[in-house]
Design goal:
7-stranded mixed sheet; Rossmann fold; 274 residues; Elongation Factor Tu (Ef-tu), domain 3; alpha+beta; 7 helices
Length: 274
């Protein structure tokens, strides 16, 4: 059984009626369904950003939550529509990698191709599978229809998958990459708390941070409040990843940083005094 909770993640934005119509389809099939909007502001067609958001967000939801991700630049093409059952969740969306990081992290139990499911809407648009395929599949799943009745089982190996590249670490240096930039311009890296622990980094240490051809020195601190207004700070963000931000500023804009940039973090010899 599912939790009855359906979580929507799209790049539809808020101007058009697409999200509302998806909810209407879900409610028409299961009036008792509870629907949560994770975000509808994923960067347009950015399936990797969607995958990152799912990865870091899922653990805050109940077991058996149904996640519906519609970031689908290949809609109407040959890509499959998927329903994935993981150890703790159900994931529904296109086979373009957007579901893959969470699926691999949580452990895959079964994958189903729902592209031709009899539980789709009767008339299928080539351009709006969020409404016609993914929403109804989620709704029927939330009503108790078993995954194996909703689609045809396929191999996990046949899915399109992203890999979260692991950082490289030496005694005083960590090499990683920028994987997400939030609305505040904070620069999130793929360097998790585990890697920071491995080099025994302490609050107050000065770090030399090189991102592509940009370089800055900033302290490793618990939060923005430990530096002055307009000053940079390095910290562990709320998802437990190393991040660079500016107190009351936009670090990505100031330093001209985009996702995918390589980052090198080296500890300085001396510690600052907070």
């Amino acid at each position: 059984m599912t939790s009855g909770l359906i979580v929507l993640l799209t790049d539809f934005g808020l101007k058009d009626p697409y999200v509302g119509v998806m909810k209407g389809v879900i409610k028409s099939i299961n009036s008792e369904a509870e629907i949560i909007d994770l975000t509808h502001m994923v960067r347009r067609q950015d399936t990797y950003e969607a995958a990152i958001i799912l990865l870091v967000s899922a653990k805050y939801f109940p077991e058996k939550t149904i996640f519906v991700c519609v970031v689908d630049p290949g809609v109407g093409g040959s890509r499959k529509a998927l329903l994935i059952e993981t150890n703790h969740y159900y994931l529904i969306g296109p086979d373009n990698g957007c579901l893959s990081l969470l699926a691999q992290n949580d452990g895959v139990k079964a994958v189903y191709d729902v592209s031709e499911s009899k539980y789709r809407l009767r008339r299928i648009s080539y351009t709006f599978h969020g409404r016609d395929v993914f929403a109804p599949i989620a709704a029927w799943l939330s009503r108790g229809i078993k995954p194996e009745e909703l689609g045809v089982r396929i191999s996990f190996e046949d899915m399109v998958k992203y890999d979260l590249i692991r950082p490289e670490i030496t005694e005083n240096t960590v090499r990683g990459s920028v994987i997400y930039i939030d609305v505040f311009g904070n620069i999130m890296t793929n360097i998790s708390m585990d890697y920071i622990d491995k080099i025994n980094l302490s609050y107050g240490e000065k770090l030399r941070v090189k991102i592509d051809d940009k370089e800055l020195v900033c302290p490793f601190v618990p939060s923005f409040s430990y530096v002055g207004l307009g000053e940079p700070a390095c910290y562990i963000n709320s998802w437990d990843y190393f991040e660079i931000g500016i107190n009351h500023g936009n670090a990505a804009e100031k330093y001209g940083i985009e996702k995918g940039a390589r980052i090198f973090i080296t500890r300085e010899q001396l510690k600052s005094k907070n």
